[in-house]
Specification:
Chain lengths: 317, 289, 454
């Protein structure tokens, strides 16, 4: 892996453009490159974020405009309510389980699939297009479809299982524990497997050839090449995929809302089904905002954690 | 992929790999096939119990209704308006977020500067804010700015949502490009910009493709924010449009599937046109030496 | 082209009504609200859309023609989506329409955001609407809405089971009583169990078991058993012995397989689908499903094999009465509307006898007495016997059994607290009494925070 020369330039830049008049220097160039992204993000998310922080300190009820004011006697009332809310704690726990299982399982499947696709010689383009098909449906539609697949009486899953004799009685997929969680995980993984697979596939395809050629010369087996070369060199992509998917799964909503909407009896309750029910359906926008902020910060902690791992992985290389 | 000699064992291996890939991917596409079939089924098969797996006949009824060709159904679905809005929003937001995100990704990959990590995390942060938390404040803001029912406003939001992913992906892909190439460019007299534009960017095409596909499909399918921010038909995109098939107690599932089939066509065309670029990096990669 | 089409249809309509006059129908249903001159006025409307709901809006061209107004429909959304839109629009001050959708189950939320309609309609005009609905929709003396059409849950039962001589005989042998269409909850329970235990039906009873559907079904069984969700001071009372009785019944139905194993995941459509597929013997269901169940294409198993009747009484307590969870779709005028008088004219037109009658022909239950009289008169000539039965039952229910959910703005909020706990009781996670106590405490806490007990 000595040929691997990625990552940041060394601290003392070994190469620099020749300074000329009118040329932007090393100090301003990166800043100018980042500014467009930064401005766009601040414009779109800045106001909502500040607004949410403010609202989270009020007992705001959507239908009572007079409640949109900070109660100075008890500004953190919403946060205290949440800490003491067992449903919120369950939802948090469910979200973490949902996140851990979905993201990891999805990663393992995607890793296998990406290695398979990288080696395919027949119909590569067709297969890649086929791979992306699950991403092409709106999540709400996927939710409706899987809710029906898992319907106890008329659903496809039970009918297939019954007809091949694997089960004798219909299974209440969306109700029984832990089948409800498994059902929503299945739909989520199905829909998002392509995302992770494509990142890993693109990563695999961008690995330098020489390393593999050198390994071939040394007579390494396919498995050895995967374990010793491909997998470690994919680390940056692994962390990108894991982070992005964690953030997205933590926000997972449309599919779950349609399939179970957190039910029954909060068994599949995730943070976002709960927030939506509270903030929009139950009009408690203040409380909902507080909950949203708590989870945004939990997500941020996740991101920081993965980011650190990513930096470490780069240093190892 | 490699130059090793083709032994019988290897030939078998390649055949099995191909076979397995096809089987797995076809299996993966089956739920989608079901959705597509639903769009073409006769109404009686839609909710049949037990389900009818192979349709007994195929019909275009759902599409005729959608396009207003069915005289019994009064309201037609404004498909062309949904299509125009979705295309505009997805295309604009993809292009803008690719441009902005690639620039930023390059800066993060190639430069050390103050607040490098903080800036990077700040950009990521916006990805963790869910649509539910964004939609209402954005609606409030858009009402004040007159951006409600305006596709430009929606495209703006999608740009911001897609940037973090794009930045991170491009950062990763730029780091895969050996630094020697950039160094060589500097020695040849290139400026920072020229080194980016002429040397690194062409090698990052697989990354651009990946990010572009994700940005496009994410915008194409986004529901929550679109649902709140666009209210009138003139600004609605496909995903909230899917809800025009719901009624108080039930929904027209076949109609929804038919619209999804329609929605898929531009997405498939986009993917077919772009997915080839996922590999182009390979050939470019071979150039360096 | 579109204009030509409209002109053409107006001519056709005129020709038809003329033809109607000639054939001695001198009491043809009349339009209203066409007298004002609204030239140059644009009336904007945000209302419920989807399927049959939209047919009514075609008649608006008649209104536009006669008054000179332009009507623009700015939003057509399904029930829950339109509610969310109205709420957020009211909350952030983004109202850009003059006529808004309303519904008796949702109206308490909009109090203060919509105009009291008594100022725009005379008592005489209001007298033709079902008094039960007008009364329910009057909050603190202010009429919140003008009803458009109603829906109520009627008892649907499978005639192929209830009229089968063998099943009747077996039931007599098993229970010592005749198999008749149930009029009490205890009877429903016995019959449903009999059907399941003897394999006559996959499930004895059918119900949606999540969200507002579950809360409403509980509410319905509760009030029909003489109980109530709240007392007059809005103190929760559903955790008393009647509530526990109902909750225990639902739990036992679930545990014993009398209702579907995934009941707690079923919403209206999934629940109705089980009846459509012939898996359910008897259930309370909305009239809105009638044409679907009766269509042999969509529901071959039950089309022609079911009938419907008035709801049953709940458990035998003081104050027991027939079930009848009901609601009415309606129109209102937002306080923030620009053209309130013109909006009132449009509502007057949309709820006029003629428009209401035409909508009733599509299967909706009317809320005007004159329309009811006409429909029942006409149905006596129908060759589908159930058509007439259905109308008579519906009229009785709408005049006698029309029960809206409690008129608190927190109805959905209450439901969101209540239904997961009720699901927990059904699934065995919670004991009935403990669960209902927990729900009552949480509800009380929310209502107290909203200032109910100050």
């Amino acid at each position: 892996m000595s040929t691997q020369t990625t990552s940041l330039p060394p601290a003392e830049l070994s190469g620099q453009p020749v300074p000329r008049r009118g040329r932007i220097g090393p100090r301003w160039f990166p800043v100018l490159m980042i500014i467009p992204s930064f401005v766009l993000i601040v414009v779109v998310t800045g106001f909502p974020l500040l607004y949410s922080v403010y609202v989270s300190l009020t007992p705001y009820n959507l239908l009572r405009p007079d409640t949109l004011a900070i109660d100075l006697a008890n500004p953190f009332g919403n946060y205290i309510t949440l800490v003491n809310d067992p449903v919120f704690r369950d939802a948090l726990l469910n979200t973490i389980i949902f996140l851990a299982v979905t993201v990891n399982l999805e990663y393992v499947l995607a890793l296998g699939l990406s290695q398979l696709l990288a080696r395919v010689t027949v119909g590569q383009s067709i297969l890649r297009t086929l791979l992306m098909i699950p991403m092409m449906f709106a999540p709400i539609l996927v939710g409706f479809q899987f809710r029906w697949f898992f319907n106890a009486q008329a659903g496809l899953v039970n009918n297939i299982l019954l007809s091949i004799g694997l089960i004798q009685e219909p299974i209440a997929w969306l109700v029984d524990e832990p089948l409800g969680m498994i059902s929503i995980m299945t739909a989520t993984i199905w829909m998002n497997l392509p995302v992770t697979t494509i990142i890993l596939l693109a990563g695999t395809l961008s690995l330098p050839h020489e390393v593999f050629e050198a390994a071939d010369v040394d007579g390494a087996s396919g498995w050895q090449k995967f374990v010793r070369i491909t997998f470690p060199m994919l680390a940056p992509f692994t962390f990108i995929a894991l982070t992005i998917r964690s953030l997205d799964v933590a926000r997972a909503f449309d599919i779950v809302r349609i399939m179970t909407d957190g039910g029954p009896a909060h068994r599949t309750e995730l943070i976002w089904t709960y927030v939506t029910r509270l903030a929009i359906e139950s009009n408690q926008f203040g409380l909902g905002s507080a909950m949203a902020l708590i989870t945004v910060f939990i997500s941020l902690a996740f991101t920081v954690y993965f980011f650190r791992q990513l930096v470490k992985a780069r240093i190892v290389q | 992929m490699t130059t090793s000699p083709v032994t019988p064992y290897r030939r078998l291996n390649i055949t099995l790999t191909n076979l397995l890939a096809w089987v797995v991917l076809i299996a993966l596409a089956l739920p989608a096939v079901w959705i597509v079939l639903t769009a073409f089924r006769p109404a009686a098969e839609i909710n049949a119990s037990p389900p009818v797996i192979i349709p007994r006949e195929l019909t275009l009824d759902a599409f005729e209704t959608m396009f207003g060709l069915n005289p019994d159904v009064r309201q037609r679905v404004p498909v062309e308006s949904y299509l125009a809005n979705s295309l505009f929003v997805a295309a604009t937001s993809t292009v803008v977020s690719l441009i902005a995100g690639t620039l930023a990704g390059y800066a993060f990959a190639r430069f050390r500067f103050r607040f490098h990590t903080a800036a990077f995390l700040a950009i990521m942060f916006s990805r963790s804010i869910p649509g539910v938390a964004l939609s209402l404040p954005l609606f409030l803001l858009f009402v004040r700015l007159g951006l409600v029912n305006n596709v430009v406003g929606l495209a703006f939001v999608y740009v911001a949502i897609n940037i973090p992913f794009t930045v991170w992906l491009m950062d990763g892909f730029f780091r895969q490009i050996p630094y020697d190439l950039t160094e060589a460019a500097y020695i040849d007299g290139c400026s920072y910009w020229q080194a980016f534009w002429r040397v690194n960017l062409p090698l990052a095409v697989p990354g651009l493709t990946t990010a572009g596909i994700f940005a496009f499909l994410a915008s194409w399918n986004e529901f929550q924010i679109a649902n709140v921010v666009t209210r009138s038909v003139s600004a609605r995109t496909f995903p909230p449009g899917l809800f025009s098939f719901t009624e108080q107690f039930t929904f027209d599932w076949r109609g929804m599937c038919a619209m999804s089939v329609l929605m898929m066509i531009p997405a498939i065309v986009f993917v077919i046109l772009t997915q080839r670029n996922l590999v182009r990096g390979l050939t470019f990669g071979a150039v360096k030496g | 082209m579109r204009k030509l089409l409209i002109v053409f249809s107006v001519i056709m309509l005129a020709a038809f009504s003329f033809g109607g006059l000639v054939t001695a129908q001198d009491d043809a249903p009349q339009y209203a609200g066409l007298d004002a001159d609204l030239s140059g006025v644009t009336i904007r409307m945000a209302t419920i859309g989807g399927g049959q709901y939209e047919a009514m809006y075609d008649s608006i061209s008649v209104f536009e023609e006669a008054t000179g107004a332009t009507v623009e429909i700015v939003a057509l959304l399904d029930g829950f989506a339109i509610d969310q839109k109205l709420k957020t629009d009211f909350a952030v001050g983004a109202v850009d329409y003059d006529v808004s959708w309303n519904h008796t189950s949702f109206m308490a939320q909009y109090v203060g955001f919509v105009e009291p309609l008594n100022q725009y309609f005379t008592d005489e005009e209001l007298a033709v609407f079902s008094p039960a609905i007008i009364e329910a929709a009057t909050i603190d003396g202010n009429l919140q809405l003008i009803p458009r059409h109603a829906d109520v849950a009627a008892l649907h039962y499978r005639t192929d089971l209830y009229e089968d001589a063998d099943i009747q005989a077996a039931y007599m042998e098993a229970t010592g009583e005749a198999l008749v269409v149930p009029t009490s909850l205890a009877q429903v329970d016995r019959q449903a169990r009999f059907f399941v235990e003897n394999g006559h039906s996959t499930f004895g009873y059918g119900m949606a078991g999540t969200e507002e559907a579950l809360t409403g079904r509980f509410y319905e069984l509760l009030f029909s058993s003489g109980g109530a969700l709240f007392d007059e001071n809005f103190e929760p009372t559903f955790n008393n012995e009647i509530g526990v009785e109902v909750a225990t019944l639902l739990r036992n139905w679930y545990v014993d397989g009398i209702i579907a194993p995934d009941t707690t995941a079923l919403l209206w459509d999934g629940d109705a689908q089980n009846f459509c597929n012939g898996d359910v013997a008897v259930k309370l269901e909305w009239y809105g499903w009638y044409s679907y169940f009766q269509d042999p294409e969509s529901c071959p198993a039950v089309a022609g094999n079911f009938s419907l009747t008035r709801g049953f009484n709940g458990f035998d307590n003081a104050g027991a009465r027939p079930t009848g969870w009901a609601g009415a779709h309606a129109f209102s005028i937002p306080v923030a509307a620009q053209n309130k008088d013109a909006a009132a004219e449009l509502i007057r037109f949309l709820t006029s006898e003629r428009v209401a009658y035409e909508e009733a022909l599509l299967g909706f239950l009317p809320v005007r007495d004159d329309v009811w009289a006409r429909l029942i008169d006409e149905a006596s000539a129908s060759d589908v016997p159930l058509d007439q039965v259905r109308l008579e039952v519906a009229r009785t229910q709408i005049s006698d059994d029309f029960r809206t959910p409690p008129l608190i703005a927190e109805w959905i909020e209450f439901s969101n607290i209540f239904y997961p706990i009720m699901q927990g009781i059904m699934l065995g996670d919670l004991e009935p009494q403990a669960g209902l106590d927990q729900a009552a405490a949480a509800t009380r806490e929310r209502l107290a925070a909203a200032g109910y007990y100050d």
